[in-house]
Amino acid sequence: MLSNHQSVDVMMKTNNRWGVLYCPKHNRLGARKRWGKIECCLQEQGVDFDFVQSERQESVARLVNMMINNGYKTIVIVGGDSALNDAVNCLMEADKDTRESIVLGLIPNGIMNDFAHFWGFKENEIEQTVKWLKERRVRRIDLGCIRYVNAKGERCHRYFLNCVNIGLISAIMNLRSQTRRLLGSRTLSFFSSMVLMIFQRLDYKMSLKINSDVINRKVMTVCVGNASGYGQTPNAVPYNGLLDVSVVYHPEMTQLFEGFYLLVTGKFLNHHSVHPYRTNEVRVDEAVKALVSVDGRLMKTPVGSYRITVEQEVINFLIPA
């Protein structure tokens, strides 16, 4: 049994050490090399850390909860948008005092790293990322939240950092994730997804309430962004207590490819089929057979209506200095 002095020493040691969760990509050889680079960089910069590795997506939440329960005050996720989403949902399950005592950091290492790119973190600049994290510049950031009923009739909710997609883009992002695993290249996966898109349904009957506007018509896709939303909500920021929404009506096929060009070039809102909003709540009363994804991960389609809201300044996040 530890004495009081030893207990304080252990607590201080844990408080000062980073808990690092490494979420490797699917290529095992590449994953070992990638972690080797990150580990060397952490050691060279004198970071005191413990690390665990997730073997699969389902283990991320368990390992983050383990770090929270073991008293780590700095938790760094080496992963992408989905792993980061799991981490913030674990933090939101903790009591307020515990959550506010923890700072979350990110080293991008996922199939999609949109939230990292929003802040300027880049996959190939590990040394710079670690330097920024060591500066410990903390910003309290917002989270979006989708509240819905599942197939069992249970009331559920899921928090998100980046965006919720409803409709075609959600289907394409699911295809892109799958093709990225097969092809490895982000560019190849994007264009492969565009080709496969011709086999997808292009519009969905929706009924939406955004501010005082009621939208009741066929819609191609909706993006509700707490941040850049994979280019669909480029003006959204996760610290103003508001959500940006892009509602896209069904354009002609030639206009559709123009829309993808504008998406890639960061001019998505210039397309005449895109209708932007800024709000603190979106109510989806109907979205017939439209797939829903949260931070790039497909979720089971909610049963009936659902709401998307924002909670202001609830997570401590390490941003570039």
List the helices and strands and how they pair.
Elements: H1 4-16, E1 18-22, H2 28-44, E2 49-53, H3 59-69, E3 74-79, H4 81-93, H5 96-100, E4 103-108, H6 114-119, H7 126-135, E5 137-149, E6 155-160, E7 163-167, H8 168-183, H9 186-196, E8 204-210, E9 213-219, E10 221-225, E11 243-248, H10 253-264, E12 274-279, E13 281-287, E14 292-294, E15 297-299, E16 306-319
Helix pairs in contact: 3-4, 8-9
Question: Please, could you describe this protein's structure?
Answer:
By secondary structure, the chain is of the alpha+beta class. It is built from ten helices and 16 strands. The strands form two sheets. Strands 1, 2, 3, 4, 5, 6, 8, 9, 13 and 16 form a ten-stranded mixed β-sheet that branches. A six-stranded antiparallel β-sheet has the order 12-11-10-7-14-15, covered by helices on one side. The longest helix is centred in the first third of the chain and has 17 residues. The chain is elongated, with a radius of gyration of 20 Å. The N terminus is likely disordered.
Quick gist of this model?
The protein has 321 residues and is of the alpha+beta class. The chain has helices at 4-16, 28-44, 59-69, 81-93, 96-100, 114-119, 126-135, 168-183, 186-196, 253-264, and strands at residues 18-22, 49-53, 74-79, 103-108, 137-149, 155-160, 163-167, 204-210, 213-219, 221-225, 243-248, 274-279, 281-287, 292-294, 297-299, 306-319.
Total number of helical segments? 10
Q: Please identify the oligomeric state.
A: single chain
The counted number of beta strands is: 16
Structural class: alpha+beta
Shape: elongated
N-to-C span: 42 Å
Query: Helix-strand pattern, N to C?
Result: HEHEHEHHEHHEEEHHEEEEHEEEEE
Strand content: 25-35%
Parts with pLDDT < 50 across at least 5 consecutive residues: 1-12
- Main sheet? 10 strands, mixed
Radius of gyration: 20 Å
Percentage of residues assigned to helices: 25-40%
Averaging pLDDT over every residue, what do you get?
84
